[in-house]
Design goal:
By secondary structure, the protein is mostly helical. The chain is rod-shaped. The relative contact order is 0.07. The chain has one domain.
Length: 78
């Protein structure tokens, strides 16, 4: 049983024995873990994309315009 499954089992147990404070604490812990995990994932994704050089992945506007002019000079349609 994973940690999340154990916490969900605790939620069920606390609700069935009518322990609202314990239920609330277990629920908050589950949400906190999920939010923290999501934030860490986003941080890693942003860090990987932050320093990518856009010229490596895409043609710049200048390169595209130069290609179009060369095509027109040689009689090719753009």
């Amino acid at each position: 049983m994973t940690e999340i499954e154990a916490r969900v089992a605790d939620l069920i147990k606390f609700s069935s024995i009518q322990k609202p404070i314990d239920f609330e604490d277990a629920f908050k812990a589950i949400l906190q873990d999920k939010v923290t995990s999501a934030i860490e994932g986003k941080k890693q994704q942003m860090a990987m994309n932050m320093f990518v050089n856009p010229s490596d992945d895409y043609e710049t506007e200048e390169e595209i315009e130069t290609d179009e002019v060369e095509d027109q000079e040689y009689g090719e349609d753009a």
